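In this section we turn from sequence analysis to structure. A common task in structural bioinformatics is to predict how a protein folds when a small molecule is present, because the ligand can shape the pocket around it. The inputs are simple: the amino acid sequence and a SMILES string for the ligand, here adenosine-5'-triphosphate. Study the lines below before reading on.
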Amino acid sequence: MSARLTELRLTEFKTFRDAVLPLNDMTILIGRNSSGKSNALDGLDVLSRLAEGGDLADALDSRRGDEGPLRGGIAGCPPHGEDQFKLGCTVVNPEAAGEGYFWLEFDVTVRVGPEPEIVRETLTGFSGKRRKTQDPKRNSMHALLDAKSVSAGAGTIEASWYNGRPGRGPRATFRSSRLVTAQLPLRLEGTDEVQRQITAAAHDVLSALRGVFHLDPVPHLMRQYTPGRDIRLRRTAENLSAVISHMRELDPQSFRKLVRHTQALVDHDVSGIELIRSDLGDVMLALREGTATTPAREMSDGLLRFMAIATTLLRQGQDLDLSRRDLPGETGSPMLVIEELENGLHPAQASQLLSLVKETIAAQVVFTTHSPALLSALSPKDHDHVVVSSRDRATGISRLTRLPEVEGYPSLMAQGDLGTVVTSGLLDQRPAGEQDFTAFDHLMGIGPR
Ligand SMILES: Nc1ncnc2c1ncn2[C@@H]1O[C@H](COP(=O)(O)OP(=O)(O)OP(=O)(O)O)[C@@H](O)[C@H]1O
Ligand SMILES: [Mg+2]
């Protein structure tokens, strides 16, 4: 297993202050509209863009190829009325256990104006001798990198790094317009073991972040012929036909699964998936329906969106178009981010989608949902991976709470159906004279405010 993200820290970002989003193999974000779900995912997107090591303004403000612009741009990142934002993450690489820093904490503060610049950046690492990946003790973490801006607007930042000895390590000046973690390995000669370990740690953090892939399938873009060689899935899934054609050649087992899932989705008889070729060698996906063939051009929105998500999950996040992010020696495992997973699908398909997510082992999956059917399909064990986003009415600040930690959760467990509770609330189902579930219902976004 390679470097993976286990936590996103939203320390000062949009609606968040000191909030933490735990990231597992599967992470489900729920909560009412405008509660901060997409803001949290924007935070992940910002770190991922910064991890490319390019200029801050380019990374956060320009329309970057297929990826599209960051929602709200760089000016939308600080909480309203402030001029800086602060984000962080924890990355764990079990492969490095025993030989290097396998537990890494990375935090960065960016001042957005007048010129965007990094004002603080730290990378801390734990290299326990034990092959365990539990939370290390603070005092056994090494400050691998510590960068601070000395004078605002100078375009530079002072940084020191660890050299294996107690006390302050070597120092140097770096550019404040890009991540110091991306610049540091270029300065280290890599002549001693500590330097090699720091380089590996920086690489692990950057590659885990670069693996974040926000899948946002747009059905009308999938209804066209695609060059057969365009096999790396783009976030809009506009080249899905070529990706599925490639999957049929390379991974017939997953292709057969896609056929089965597609058959299970629709009411009418689908006997297979075909790939039609144009005279120019371009491909278009089609469904074999009885004696007729339905090309992608004529397929329904929900079906196309489902096929894009199912293909990405069945391929375990391989062959994604991570734009400029493919650097040599890439090792991070992909993290698929999907907003409103169930969008456009009939409620009866919820459990099918969920099983696809759970079968995705080589990639982490984070999704948001408003679907009661999908929530009801979760097992009690899955509830550990559900995070509820809510916003304080007085301050407007968003909070993230793991579902089992929500007050009133044991009563929910007694009913065993999260979907029903999210729709109608525990309050409605409370036998007379029993516990008050106002707090629970408020957090879940139900009932009077
Ligand atoms: N920089 C900012 N500072 C403070 N608040 C902000 C900032 N940017 C956005 N917001 C608030 O966050 C809200 C958007 O939240 P977000 O997009 O995360 O909602 P959501 O939970 O994804 O909702 P939905 O389910 O509707 O998609 C905005 O309406 C605004 O109130
Ligand atoms: Mg949203």
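The chain has a mean pLDDT of 89. As an exercise, try to locate the residues that line the adenosine-5'-triphosphate site and compare them with your own expectations.
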